[in-house]
Amino acid sequence: MTTSCSVPGMTVPRSRFPDPEQDLPADQDSGQIVLAGGCFWCVEAVIIAMNGVHSVESGYAGGSADSANYQAVCTGTTGHAEVIKIEYDPAQVSLGSLLKIFFSVAHDPTQRNRQGNDIGTQYRSAIFYQSAQQRQVAQAYIEQLNQAGVFHSAVVTELEPLETFYVAEADHQDFAARNPGQPYIMAVAAPKVQKLVDQYSDRLKPGVTSRSTDDHSNKA
Q: What positions carry a catalytic annotation?
C-alpha cells in the first residue's frame, strides 16, 4: 500500500445515502459477508467498529490457493482481491446496514480497480456473495445509489460469487488497531474511522472514539 490516498467519494455525507430499500430479515441472514474495498487494513478498521459485528478477518478471494499470499496478490496478477470476512449478529446489524457503511465510509465504490493511490485489481471494489439473497440485496442497493445520484460517478462495485476465502497472514490481522501510528493507517484508515464516528455514532460499538484505531480491535 502507498502512504498517500485521495478518495473523493469519501467526502459524500451520510445525508446523501438512503437506507437500503431491500434487506435480509434477521432469520434469513447467515451473519457472514465478504467485502473488498481496497486495502483490507482500512476496511477492517471501519467495519470492526460497528455495533453487532463480532469479528473481521482480512484475507483474499477471487483467485486460487497457490497464489493466495500477500507477496503474490500485490502483483495484481493473481485475480484475488484484498477482502475482509465479517461475522455479525443479524439481530443487531443487518446486511443492508453493513453495506451502507461499506459504500459511504469504508471506501469509494466509484473507483475501478483502485482506491486512491493503491492501484490494481487486488484493490477492486467487490461484494463476494454467498447466496442469491445476498446478491439481490447488494445489487438492489447499488442500483438505488446510482438512481439517487449519490456519487458524481456510477458505482462500479463488482458482484462475485464467493468460492473460497483465504485467510491473510497474521501480520495483516487487526493491523490498524495494532499499528495506529503507522503512516498509512494515519493517512488513510484514520480519516475513515473519524467519518464513521462523526456521522454514524448510532452504529458504533460502546466505547469507540476517534482518538485512535486501537479503540475497536477484534475483541467483541
A: 39
